[in-house]
Amino acid sequence: MLYIVLSASIHGVEGVQHSSSDRRIFLLPSASAFQAASGWSATALCCFNLSGKSRFQSLSQVQAQATEAMAEPAYTVPEFRQRTAEEGTEEYQRVSANVGKGLAVIEEELHRMRMATKAKVESLNIQMEVKDMMRRRPEYLDDIPKMPDFLVALRPHTVWEKMPVKLFCTVQGNPRPILKWYKDGVPVNPLNAPGKYKIENKYGVHSLIISRCAVSDTAEYSAVATNQHGTATSMATVIVKRPSGAGESCHLGLVPHLTEIHASKLEVTLLDRFHVTFGVEGGSASLVCSMVVVPDLPNIPPLAQWYRDDKLLKPGKLAEMSVCGSSARLTLPHLAKDDEGLYTLRIFTKDGTAEHSAYLFVSDATPSVAGAPGAPMSVKAYDVNADFVLVAWKPPNTVNEAPISGYFVDRCEAGSDTWVQCNDSPVNVCKYPVHGLSVGRSYHFRVRAVNKAGISRPSRKSDKVTAIDAAESERLQVIKIHGKYDIVIRDDDLEGYVTIPGEPTDVHASEIYQSYVVLSWKPPSPRGRAPLSYVIEKCLAGTGAWQRINTAVKLHSPRYPVYDLQDGQKYQFRVYSVNLYGSSEASVPSEPVQKGDEDGVPSAPGKVVATRNTKSSVFVQWDAPTHLKHLMGYYIDARVVGAKEWFACNHKPFKHNRFVVHGLVPGESYVFRVQAVNLFGLSDESQESSPIAVEPALATPSAPYGISLLSSDGSSITVAWKSPKHCGGSKVNAYYVDKRDADTLVWKEVNLAAITERVCTVDNLTEGTFYEFKVQAGNMAGVGVPSAPSSPMKCEAWTMEQPGPAYDLSFSEVRSHSLVLLWKAPVYTGAGHVTGYLVDMAKKGSSDFVTLTQEAVSTRFLQVTGLEEGETYVFKVRAVNAKGVGKASSLSDPVCAKALPGTKEIVAGVDEETGDIFLSLEACEICETSKFEWSKNYKPIGDCPRVAMTTKGRTSRLSFTNPDKDDLGRYSVVVTDTDGVSGSHTLTEDALNTMLELSYAIRHPVVPLKHGLNYEILPKGHVRFWLQAVKLSPSVSYRFIVNDKEIKSGEGFKISHDVATGVIQMVVENFTRANEGTYTAQVHDGKAKTQSSLVLVGDVFKVALREAEFQRKEHIRKQGPHFSEYLYFTVSEECTVMLACKMANVKKETSFHWFKEDDEIVPETPPNVMSGACALPIPLFSRKDQGVYKASLSDDRGKDVSVFDISGQVFDDIINAIAQIAGASASELVLQCTPEGIRLQCYMNYYTEEMKTSWKHKESKIASSEKMRIGGTAEMAWMQICDPSDKEKGHYSIEISDGVKTHTRTFDLSGQAYTDAYEEYLRLKAAAFAEKNRGRVVGGLPDVVTIMEEKSLSLTCTVWGEPTPEVTWFKNEQEVASTEHTKVMFDGGKFASLVITKVTPEDSGKYSINVRNKYGGEFVEITVSVYKHGEQLPEPKMGLPKGATPASTPVPPKSPAPPSKTPTPTPSKSQTPAPSMKSPTPGSTPASTPGPKSPTPGFKSPTPAPKSPTPTPKSPTPTSRGAKSPTPPRFMKSPTPPRK
User: Fold this and answer.
1) Residues 6 or more apart from 927 whose CB is under 8 A from it?
2) How far apart are CA 573 and CA 589, in angstroms?
3) Interhelix angle for 85-142 vs 59-70, to 10°?
4) Are 807 and 877 in contact (CB under 8 A)?
5) Using an 8 Å Cβ cutoff, are 1229 and 1305 in contact?
6) What is the DSSP letter of 762?
7) Which of 109, 156, 194, 447 is the most buried (most CB within 10 A)?
8) Of the candidates 502, 499, 489, which has an alpha carbon nearest to the alpha carbon of residue 529?
9) pLDDT over threshold 70, residue 1463
């Protein structure tokens, strides 16, 4: 708007009085500017008071002033103008000469001024009229709907990468539009990219700030304003460019020149700051402080420095530092107590520095030994010499541990992890001299504390120190020549040629303690160039008897610790310098030295005073000790009032005598004590402070906030506000409201008397005027600061039919996923009463509100569920009546869906003493001003006769007087002046009934029983009747009644009780039929009583009586030898069944016998009764082992028998146990071919047909038949497929069941496996056929024949073969031809004979018969001996060993078997026939039984050969004992795995 200054004052008007407060500035707005801004065409004048306050005058007042200004007042000559007559004449003459001309000028000027004043008055009149119309114009405009319109539109921006950009616009409309930001049509949500976007709306200017722009931020941004009358959009393009060489080519082809900016030129504002932090030794901690940096340049981060206890920290392995544009971070990855202290972040800014400090506490880690002290800290090495260093440290705090008795010092060379203990015995001061170091090597040191419980964890190792001669650098001089060159001269060069060094000087004791004394001296001068060492001598003061003390140690440093000094003695010391040329003179002796701790620990600190600080901390201060004695600092301990154990508040000595103790429980009461620390240890404890509750320090409350308009009637306004966020440590008990006209700056008090409620109606207001309000809160400390002024509120009568806004939105029971929202009803209800409420919710920072209720709720609270843990939400409430939905309330405070630490819920229970039913809440935090406010269905309970409220400490209890159904409902409690401690509980009818029953039981006590009256049979046949109470007092009384007769303790009955266990019992020693009946026990314990009965009649009594008699007999039985465990069975891994028993009360003379069916069994190993156990093995268990087994035990004291019947279920159990072991040991199925077919075999530890074994083919069970034969031996189970065909291909399995588990083994007989097996089967079948039909001698020939000369010899045998075999006789391997003397006959293809008539000695020899056909044959040999008449019978000369010799050439079958994969061995050609050694018998037996030496061929298998061979095929042809001539077997490797 353009303005023209008309006049700066009206001083030219005569007679007008004015002052500085009445000065005016008249501004005339140009018509065009005024019209554009206000829409009015008239030109007006605006008048403003220079003091900033508007002043309006009525038209009559203005006219009066103007008339007074134009009037001509009477002229009075001033005194200084008055003259004498002469002077007057002279003056008159002088003036009259010019009066004619001057008077005309004055009149003309006066007329001009009159006209100007009139014009100004008219302008002022117009101005006042315009002002009045301008005041009414907003009211008119508020009623005119208007769609959004951008007064200031967005403008495009082009920026460099990583620089910020700000888009802003101004929009108008009625009602006020809602503005949203979009990026390429997508809504901009600052929550999706924290720190990236910032949306603001200040004074009507909407802005979007994009920080640290990236190339990806290049887009078209739009601001969309919307109200109910339309939408307006303003768009602008943001282009983000990257300098060339930074990854993308620059759009302009130029790199912007950035002036070098130092980090201290940046503007830095700290935001989220790190708080007090608690850590543990060995853990880690991070201190982070977020900030805003302007400009945010990635290559120039702010200059940040970290301090600990005002000492600058340097980055390293123990302190990692990082600074970026948004935060500064300090990470301590390996915490030790050395790290404890006050940390300060100092950032250099354009205006100076920004700082923030907070304390880091580091507590002791868990000790390796319970009760061991904490680790020492602050280990440092100083006074470093060539072979000596002095190590010092600070002692740890000992709160509940035993006092520290000493310390061990360890060292390790740099780069090594091997620690070496320096001292053999603990040193009792925090300083120790380490000598014996190697010159030039670097070392680290650490310390461990010792007490009677053990050794502490080691301290953090010291910084690296290098053992060097400290005096060496002092012997160097540097001389500058012409200011440029440095010349280094050693003292050796100035001393000349020195051989023997001078004597040391200034020998004294630099460290004097009870444990040791450290001697120090100055090196000699001159000292020479030769390496130097020292010799030390000592003597008792005044004696002169010097004695060398470092005989075994060669010293290179002017320091040496001396340990072996006697108590109470004074010593003097002197030192010699020694080199290769000799020794110096002795130094001057030192002053007398006596060991001892000169100072000792400090005295105890003085008075300790604790004062409030915050809700979790206390400020503690104390008086310094009277005797400081080189004080290191203080340790502060605390204890909860009423507790016994103290805990450490700090873990590193604190130097000042005031300390803030953090981490305390709000509302809890503590006492404190302090100990002073020096190198000798800890002082005595100070006196305890007075108890103090942890509460915030008392202060005035903070400002109220959230002033909102609730109602207006044209002459008054009702406002409400929210209570201060901080009450200042005492209850807020007063509010004071001020008001002012929105156009003025002067505040006026509304109430002089305090307002206790947070609602106020301000009366006597002017309708149509805008007012602002502010509120102050007051407490015991005074009145706090005022709130910010409210937004202008117009005083006008509300005539809308809908209700006004609800107010005072608050939260209760905030948890991770739910909360309860509460509010108050609107003051203005509209045309009817409020019927319900609608609740809207949105996440903080979002304008997308969601209505939580489908229909209006009638209550003024709502439980909101389904919240996201850690998310922050805001709410608003709209009241509803019959005319519609009213105005929305002001937004609630943001609330985070997260429960307070330690939050507990309301607990419903029954008082154990009184039986009262109650609801109780234990608050997780509380302060002195806190109160527990109970509500039912969120309506304050107040004074109600049905309940009573009591509070003790942190716990509040709501007790019910006479609870019934009227007390059902939802109860809640809020703890005031906390961070929202609250809880709720719904009392249901079922829960109330349960508690009523418990309440009745407490008020009408009954001795509670764990177990009612019961009985048990004891050894010896005694019967114990007993019951057990939950709890008994020593004064309990009781009695037992049996069949209405009280039983007293006496003969046959023993009655007793045990208070500890609550057991009351009666023992009946002789339980007989007379004891049948009803038993009752009556118990009285204080006011409580109970009784319990047991009916013992009929069958129940008979069972008890039988058991009692059995136990009586058992007692008698156990007086002699008896079985402590009767017979039972076990099965070994070899599947041997063992019958076992255990015996007791035996002696050497006790005999033991086994029986089966009354037949005694004598085991191979005699039983040893003294071992206490005997066992009978039953190997190869099968059905034949069924029967009744008995074990007998006897001696002169008696006899006992145990019987075990192996039959029925017991037999099945044994078989199942065998099957379990056998099944587990079973091998995989093995394939073997036989002449009859293909066999599958499964080897196992033991197999018997009684085991539950089944074979399956393709999941179908196989039954034993001619086609599928199933059998087994003791070592295996087998299944044979006779005459196999393609139908028998497939998957085979065996299942061995032990009653619980089934053991399965499988084999896939298909494919190549089946082909190979079938070929082998055909080959074996052909070989068996050949074996069956070959030629052979069936019988009839003897092995040896002895015959007298001249007798006839007939060798006849039966032969068989198909086809009929050929028969050839041999004598001494020569074929025998048929002659008269020797006749060879073969009758009917069956009987072969060799007849020798009249034998002679020449006929003696070895005869043999060869029977063969195309399938093979055999030889049978006979030895013939001829003797003469009268001679003694000769001994027969045996030929070859008894048995047949296979034929030399086997005959192959007609249909040879297919060749196998392995070569078939052929018999040797050198085989010759051999005679049989045993005479055949005429009768023959068919070969139907398997022969043990049958060479049945089969697949070669890695499994051992079975003990029981495969059965040979049946043959109707008899066989002889002669040797066979079989086809050599072929072997094929089995594809199955080996036997387990």
Assistant:
1) 615, 666, 667, 693, 695, 696, 729, 977, 978
2) 5
3) 160
4) no
5) yes
6) E
7) 447
8) 499
9) no
